[in-house]
Amino acid sequence: MEKINEKLERAGERKALALMEQISQSKEQTDKVIIIQERRNSIERAQGQKVIKEIDHKLQAAETNRTVQLSKIVNRARKANDRVMIIREKKSSLERAQEEKAIVVLNQK
């Protein structure tokens, strides 16, 4: 009877040890899963921040290009306006000269 009790006690101890080992292994696996999830989250955040920086950089470049294009358009418009004003001044000075010439011719007659 004693042998049976001893065998039962040893079997119970082995069972308890096996359960404790399974528990510790499951805890280790759970810890590994948590670490992996944290790494994934960290990588996703880093990638998201990288994408945000890239988009911000592209937006800044687009805004710079837009500003440059607008300034070129404004400069072209100013040059065109200046040319028109010069042409108008030449026409008006030619017209005045012709008027003065006509007046002189009329006065001579």
What is this structure's SSE topology?
Blueprint: H1 2-108
Mean pLDDT: 90
End-to-end gap: 160 Å
Per DSSP E runs of 2 or more residues, the count of β-strands stands at 0
H/E element string?
H
Q: How would you characterize the largest beta sheet?
A: none
The portion of residues assigned to helices is over 70%
Provide the number of structural domains. 1
By helix and strand content, what is the structural category? mainly alpha
Description:
The protein is mainly alpha-helical. The protein has one domain (1-109). Helix content is 98%, strand content 0%. The protein is built from 1 helix and no strands. The radius of gyration is 47 Å and the shape is rod-shaped. The mean pLDDT is 90.
Would you summarize the structure shown here?
The chain is an all-alpha fold.
